[in-house]
Each structure stands twice: as C-alpha cells, then as structure tokens.
C-alpha cells in the first residue's frame, strides 16, 4: 500500500465515522441575562392567593407547569421603565381592603429589549400575572415598545423566535399565542379563571409580529388555538 493510498484511506474512514455519528438536533441557546424582579414573601403569598382564589389551586409554592407561551408588548417605551412597572410585588394603588381584586402586581418571566437583549425576570416555572385564565401554565415574554411610533424591532423578532425554540425544547409546550388571543381558551380545559366578568381587551403583540414568529417556528408543531367560543 502506498503512503498516498493509506492517507486517502485514513481520510475516508474519518469521514465515514463522522457520517455515522448520530446527529442530535441541537437548539441554539439564546443569551439570557438574569435581572430578577422582587420576589419576596409578599409576592409569594399574593401569588399563592391568586392561584387559590382565581384557579382553585392549593399550592405550597407558586410554580407553574408550562404549556403555553404568551407573547406581549409593554407599550412602555424603555426596558428600565417596564422593569420598574413589574418590580414591586403589589399593584400600584392597591387597597388590601378590596378583597375581590388580587393585589399581585403584573409581571412576566421574560422581557426582550428593543435591541433584542433577553432578560429573565423570574425563574421560568414561577407564576407571573400576565394573562387572565392561564397564568398557572403560561410563560410570558414581554417586548419593550409596541406603540405606533415604536413598533417591535427585527432584533426583538429574532430573540422571540430563539426564546420560543429554547422553551419548546425544555418544556412540554402545546401552544404559542399572542396575548390578544387568550380569550379563545375560555372553554378549554387549561382555562381556570372563575370570574366570568374578569376580562380585558388586548391587542398585543400585534397580528403581524405574531404571524412572523409563528411562521418561523412552524417546525415546532404547536397545536392550533381553540375555536372562539360562541357568544350568546
Ligand atoms: Zn400583554
């Protein structure tokens, strides 16, 4: 065997070996910056109360089993202002004597800045108040901006797609929805809100943005959103 021939053989064997190695599809991990909001005893107790009073869930810790990803926009124009809005444990102007309204402040597990930087405000499986009826199973991604003067950016779109891929790889996620679609779940087994009068009208994060994220994550095969319940 000539030297040259053995070299070819060696290269060929290497290539063959590489070819045969099982190729595991790896999800590219997005860069996530931890920037925790206050999660003190007050927030913990209010979260447990929320799960109990609104959903009938008695729990020791306010954790969720993620099944839905909900995309939002903040309308608030900067990351710092949006962070400050979510940071306090209680809603501004909350009066503890009004018992039928939860004092738990709104928040979300993730926030994406205008430049696409991804911040994690809470552990992924801690409950955040961001979507009526579904907080016990929903991970929220807020996007800074969203007004006509400040539409969501290409960088935010890219980061949302990366985050959705990352979360779908990590948890058994069935649905990806825009906040404006949440009422479609009213008759769904995952819908647990007890108060039929507690609804808000939402438009975030816009149909255009939602459509783009859906098209880019088609391969994840999320279930179609339920049909709109018949209005009486
Ligand atoms: Zn929203």
From TrEMBL:
> Where does the signal peptide begin and end?
none
> Reaction catalysed?
Hydrolyzes the link between N-acetylmuramoyl residues and L-amino acid residues in certain cell-wall glycopeptides
Q: Could you name the domain of life of the organism this protein comes from?
A: Bacteria
Domain N-acetylmuramoyl-L-alanine amidase span(s) in chain numbering: 57-206
**Keyword Transport attributed:** no
Q: What is its EC number?
A: 3.5.1.28
Q: InterPro entries, from UniProt?
A: Amidase/PGRP_sf, Amidase_domain, NAMLAA_amidase_2
Keyword annotations from UniProtKB, A to Z? Cell wall biogenesis/degradation, Hydrolase
Please report the name of this protein according to its UniProt entry: N-acetylmuramoyl-L-alanine amidase
